[in-house]
Design a protein that fits this description.
There is one protein chain. By secondary structure, the chain is mostly beta strands. It has a domain of 65 residues. Helices cover 8% and strands 38% of the residues. It is built from one helix and three strands. A three-stranded antiparallel beta sheet has the order 1-2-3, with no helix packed on it. It is elongated, with a radius of gyration of 30 Å. Bound molecules: zinc ion (ZN). The site of zinc ion has 8 residues, from loops.
Length: 100
């Protein structure tokens, strides 16, 4: 006839500390991001014309401005690689072109 177990359960403290609110604030809207264009051209093997490289190893790279084929670039990266098709050793020079 005793209902003590249920009674203690009901009176037990059930308060849990509130977790700090995470994530974006309510009502935050995503703004459209400005698009910065860059042109990446595929380096072609001078021997067989393939654009696939293997064993690509970073040689040097920097933020530097200059001109390549009449186009201004803002960053460059040089890597050693081998052509996937004919095995020709290559210096792959990549240039990130300036936004226009
Ligand atoms: Zn090749």
């Amino acid at each position: 006839m005793t209902n003590s177990k249920a009674a203690t359960k009901a009176t037990a403290k059930t308060k849990t500390p509130k977790a700090p609110k995470q994530g974006r604030p309510a009502g935050a809207k995503t703004k459209a991001r400005a698009v910065a264009n860059t042109i990446i051209t595929k380096a072609t093997c001078p021997k067989c014309g393939s654009t696939d490289h293997k064993n690509k190893r970073h040689v040097r790279g920097a933020i530097a401005s200059g001109t390549i084929d009449g186009q201004k670039f803002v960053r460059y990266k040089h890597s050693n690689a081998d052509c996937s098709q004919c095995g020709q050793a290559l210096l792959v020079a990549e240039y990130e072109l300036e936004c226009s």
